[in-house]
Specification:
- With 288 residues, the protein is an alpha/beta fold.
- It has a single domain, classed as Uracil-DNA glycosylase-like domain (Uracil-DNA Glycosylase, subunit E).
- The chain is built from 11 helices and 6 strands.
- The longest helix has 31 residues.
- The radius of gyration is 32 Å and the shape is elongated.
Length: 288
Amino acid sequence: MSDTSRDQSLALLRWLADAGADEAVSEAPTNRFIQSSGSPPPTARVPPPLRTETKTESAVLVGGPALRAASTKSSSSAQAVSLATAPGAARALAQSCSTLAELKTALMNFEGCELKRFATNTVFADGDPSGRVMLIGEAPGRDEDLEGRPFVGRAGKLLDRMLAEIGLDRRKVYITNVLNWRPPQNRDPSPEEAASCLPFLHRHIELADPKLMILLGAVSVRHVLGLTEGITRVRGKWNLYQSVALDRSIPVMPTLHPAYLLRQPAAKRLAWRDLLAVAEKMGQLGLA
């Protein structure tokens, strides 16, 4: 090796040492967790799994911080606009309906509620609105989501037996829910999800024009009457639902949800008292 080559090689080695390279790399990989003393290897940190990027995410990353910030701002704005305008769009659409058939079609075409993305069917109603007795539950469950009708599962079968005790069945009453789509895992709806469904419920009540309503469960009581107390405190007490469109008030009986009664059979005696009060009111209103 010439002196020039030797000096260049030494200079390169000094540069590598200054840069932090302190050992040569061989052709075979070195297991650095095996220590020369024979002691157990230290715990290795497992790197997080690589995240699969969508085309949009990839484009944002390639574009740098400015483009990433712009994309995040745009996404947040789109979400804010969606959450803010969905209830207004629902109100306008619901008010444009003059029949229950039109309202059902409008609901099936409405895309402003996030719950619809996860549901199998839009659950509108069941029974006969001309019976003038309207029952409002909380939300479809698994069986209702699959069949597209409210109260067809275990809770629905119990409700049928409860109605039969006062001479009613689902052919003589009209049954719906606050929500028309099943929340995933039957969770409570978010305020935004409920807000986009409520205009349809209010119009549903107006078009069904009931003379008496029965609210099944706390969610129904909260969204129809605006009462936030627990269902065990408000059940059994008559309330009034004020309808501007109908220009009258509708007597409302809150009671326990059949699903709750399946979990707490001892509470059926309370629900029975509520049903007796409903039967008495039906007689007074000429609905018996």
